[in-house]
Amino acid sequence: MKILCIGDVVSRIGREMLFRYVDELKYQKQLDLVIANGENATHGRGMARSAYNEIMRSGVDIVTMGNHTWGCREVIDIMRKERNVIRPANYSGDCPGEGSLIHTLRSGEKVGVINLIGRTYLEPSDSPFEKAEKEIEKLKKSTNIILVDFHAEATSEKLAMGYFLDGKVSVVFGTHTHVQTSDDVIMPEGTGYITDLGMTGPQISILGREKNSIIKRFLNGMPQKFEIAEGKGQFCGCIFEIDPKSGKCAGTERIFYREK
What we know:
Elements: E1 2-6, H1 11-29, E2 33-37, H2 49-57, E3 62-64, H3 74-81, E4 85-86, E5 100-104, E6 110-117, H4 128-139, E7 146-151, H5 155-165, E8 171-175, E9 185-186, E10 192-194, E11 201-202, H6 211-220, E12 233-242, E13 249-258
Parallel strand pairs: 1-2, 2-3, 3-4, 6-7, 7-8, 8-10
Antiparallel strand pairs: 1-12, 5-6, 9-10, 11-12, 12-13
Helix pairs in contact: 1-2
């Protein structure tokens, strides 16, 4: 079984990159499932209904979110009506939506997906480690194939989660920091891992934003309006091959395409 996980989709350019590459990769790599982080899909903050619809038409199956989950109010209605969008499970139980799901493939096999958010340098939330264990226990009743999107800032927190869940889930992939790391690996107990998938969005940018305004902020410390960058795009993600019987990861392949 091959599952493509796509890093933070940023703005119109990120959505265009999905249309350019997802179907092609599905055919070339014989993918069974595609997961994308969509918390930046609408102008870099949140996911409106129109952006969700585009993401679905591009061939993505499941959308995870992060610290910009509530950036567009429409996401609440999306999560109430659609069964393939999840937000961090360690948000308050009073928040709309779910933090995990079970997806049934055409083959009939079931795949579990969990969304978590880190606590280091981000807004307060419940423990992602404790919540991960609870969600895994729930999903294990239906499947032993489970992927975790850990939307976190600190690489140390992401690595800690990877080792904490090693052998308990199939894959732990990091999102949020928008820069792809080259540390995709199969951990000692069989869990596939990467610290950050990277960003699918504007190529000539600083984390998807227009570079000059951010450089000015670093130079003089004055507030700046960080506009979304334009121009050519890039596509970042990682393909994880999973043994459906054991639920363990059998291989990883990083994906990083840049428009010329």
